[in-house]
């Protein structure tokens, strides 16, 4: 996920990551079974996220249909979650202003659960964790987990309130 305030560099949108229209963005990603091979994928995801100044990135965005997401939390910590599952969510829905590396030059208001409870393998900690996230962190997690299910943020836009980035 990207944010307007962070801006986005003017680079060719057709190199990396994959762009809307690519069928790989619409696949249901596979659960990771073998954690031993994660290192290389994680390094590649980190490199792309940094290059494009992304708050979050999902493995299918770099053509790898496995359930791995990266995000930078509001506290500045970078997290890699493997096989993330939302096991609880607030009933309160709030608007989240989002952009996406795979949907260039568009920003829109997306309805998201204000908070979620996540269960995932935390790559940095090397163990399974259950954690609660709210607001920006929660929105970013919902956005990235959507990617694992072939959903793009535009699919959830109710008001056609597109803002040019
Ligand atoms: Zn995205």
Automatic annotation (TrEMBL):
UniProt enzyme class: hydrolase
Q: Which Pfam families match?
A: Pep_deformylase
What name does the UniProt record give this protein?
Peptide deformylase
Stretches that traverse the bilayer: none
What stretch or stretches form a coiled coil here? none
Do the record's keywords include Protein biosynthesis?
Answer: yes
Question: Which family does this protein fall into?
Answer: Belongs to the polypeptide deformylase family.
Q: Name one GO molecular function term.
A: metal ion binding
Q: Which UniProt keywords apply?
A: Hydrolase, Metal-binding, Protein biosynthesis
Database matches in CDD domains: Pep_deformylase
- Give the record's GO biological process terms: translation
Superkingdom assignment: Eukaryota
- What's the catalysed reaction? N-terminal N-formyl-L-methionyl-[peptide] + H2O = N-terminal L-methionyl-[peptide] + formate
Q: What is its EC number?
A: 3.5.1.88
Q: Which organism is it from?
A: Oikopleura dioica (Tunicate)
* Function summary: Removes the formyl group from the N-terminal Met of newly synthesized proteins.
């Amino acid at each position: 996920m990207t944010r307007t305030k962070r801006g986005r560099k003017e680079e060719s949108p057709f190199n990396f990551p994959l762009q809307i229209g690519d069928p790989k963005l619409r696949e249901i990603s596979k659960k990771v079974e073998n954690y031993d091979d994660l290192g290389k994928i994680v390094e590649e995801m980190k490199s792309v996220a940094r290059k494009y100044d992304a708050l979050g990135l999902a493995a299918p965005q770099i053509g790898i249909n496995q359930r791995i997401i990266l995000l930078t939390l509001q506290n500045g910590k970078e997290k890699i979650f493997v096989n993330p599952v939302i096991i609880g969510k607030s009933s309160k829905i709030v608007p989240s202003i989002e952009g996406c590396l795979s949907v260039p030059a568009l920003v829109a208001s997306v309805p998201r659960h204000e908070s979620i409870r996540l269960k995932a393998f935390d790559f940095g900690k090397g163990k399974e964790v259950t954690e609660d996230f709210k607001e920006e962190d929660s929105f970013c997690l919902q956005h990235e987990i959507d990617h694992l299910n072939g959903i793009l943020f535009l699919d959830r836009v109710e008001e056609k309130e597109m803002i040019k980035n």
